[in-house]
Amino acid sequence: MTEETAIASFRRVSPAILASARMAMANDIPDTSKSEISLLLKKAAPIFGIHGATYHVLDILLGLSRADDWKGTGRPIVAISNATLAEKTGRSVRTVSRCLRGIVEAGFAAYRDSPTGRRFVDRDKGGMIVSGFGLDFTPARVRLEEIRESVENYQRELKASKDARRAVTRLPRAIIDACEGFPEKADIWRRAAQAIIDGVAGQAEQASGLESLYAEVLEYSNQRFQELEMSCAGDIGITPNINTIPKTLSDSNERTRSIERDIISPDDGSAVETAYENKPETAAGHVQYRLRQTEKTAGNIQGAVLAAVPIGLLQVGCRAAQDCVRVEFDAWSDVVGAAEVMRRMIGLSEAAWLDGVGRVGRYAASAILATVLEKSLRDPNLIAKPGGYFRAMVDRAVDGSLHLSKSLYGLAERKMNRWSKR
Fold first, then answer.
1. pLDDT value at residue 237
2. How far is CA 30 from CA 17, 21, 75, 139, 141, in A?
3. d(Cα 23, Cα 117) in Å, to the nearest integer?
4. Which CATH number fits domain 3-142: 1.10.10, 1.25.40, 2.60.40, 1.10.490?
């Protein structure tokens, strides 16, 4: 079949139309399926300028094609008149004609015109096309790999653009929060962030510069955190070794009143404590018992808070928090390890953080902290004072009225709903 017989003489032929006609006469055609090529062409439509009414016409033509024609030596030819397409799309015949021309010039299909201009398809008993005239989608089969590569590149660029846009929105906010935690660096970080936003035109370049600056912020905060840990390392877990039981009765009688005043706390003058001083082993046991009861109470609260909170739920519900601190919550140790950075991000004082840890346990406090940071990142106007919000959640945990799992399920559900709308 020659190009002159494939394209009617009344058409205005362009180089793109001729290129489609040449591809339609190819013999080496890769196999594909109707569902695969339909999905691929729809994804590629915006790349090749197919939208609106043209996209609607393309969708109808792909739906009318037969699945068997996309395999082997088949030719996926669709025979439908412009008038019928106009009825199906609610457009004029002239608009449909322009849409078909756009599909052909995009290289998705080719004109296969009959001498009379009619469109029809004759098939044998096996369903194979004997002769057909209409829109031939063989060019789409020939360009299968090219179109697939174009779609993959387009999606990568689109994702990179979205990531850059989100980074430009998220990172300045995180840097400003860090400035509140480290006033000595606030002016330097603010000026650097403003210089990146004002001096760089493209969002990708802005995102790259802000990510580098934010990495410096995190490195500085981690360094300060390590220095704090080292400075407090000698104050943790030290128990004085005081033998309060006298060896002999004579040793007990030799004890002076000054020693008694050193043993008895000056702030506690109750008769009960005085009686305990007379039996020092009983007093020590009572103090240890009270400490164990406090730990047990915090452990019970922590167990109740985290009973229905698996690490996977925290990972799905607090995605923005993980992106902000650059830590994946794959294990509870990751959440606890990121607590210091998260604390600074919401402006929570160290005293309030230690108080929360003492009341509900380190793991429960870290999970609450991640939830508060996630909520404040998603909607900064929703929580005016994240630090106070954290303390309120700790109070509710102690009272037994905190349902952390419901909050995390809500955050995860809202995240999934946003993904499904995209």
1. 46
2. 21, 17, 12, 11, 6
3. 21
4. 1.10.10
Q: What is the pLDDT of residues 247-261, one digit of tens each?
A: 443 343 444 333 333
Say how far apart CA 375 and CA 321 lie, in whole Å. 9
Residue of 418, 383, 377, 371 whose CA lies nearest to 162 = 418
Domain with CATH 1.10.10 in the chain: 3-142
pLDDT tens digit string along 232-286? 555 444 444 434 344 443 343 444 333 333 333 333 333 333 333 344 444 334 4
Handedness of CA 318, 319, 324, 330 (dihedral sign): positive
CB burial string 224-246: b at 16+ within 10 A, e below: bbeeeeeeeeeeeeeeeeeeeee
CB neighbour class for 16 (10 Å; exposed up to 12, middle 13-18, buried from 19): middle
Task: Report which of 98, 69, 93, 99 is spatially closest to residue 81, judged by C-alpha positions.
Answer: 93
Q: Measured between alpha carbons, how far is 233 from 159 in angstroms, rounded to an integer? A: 45
User: Which residue's entry shows tokens 């439908």?
Assistant: 80
Radius of gyration of the chain (CA): 37
Instruction: Name the residue among 137, 156, 220, 226 with its Cα closest to residue 182.
Output: 220
Angle of the 280-306 helix axis to the 350-360 helix axis, nearest 10: 90
CB 325 within 8 A of CB 265: no
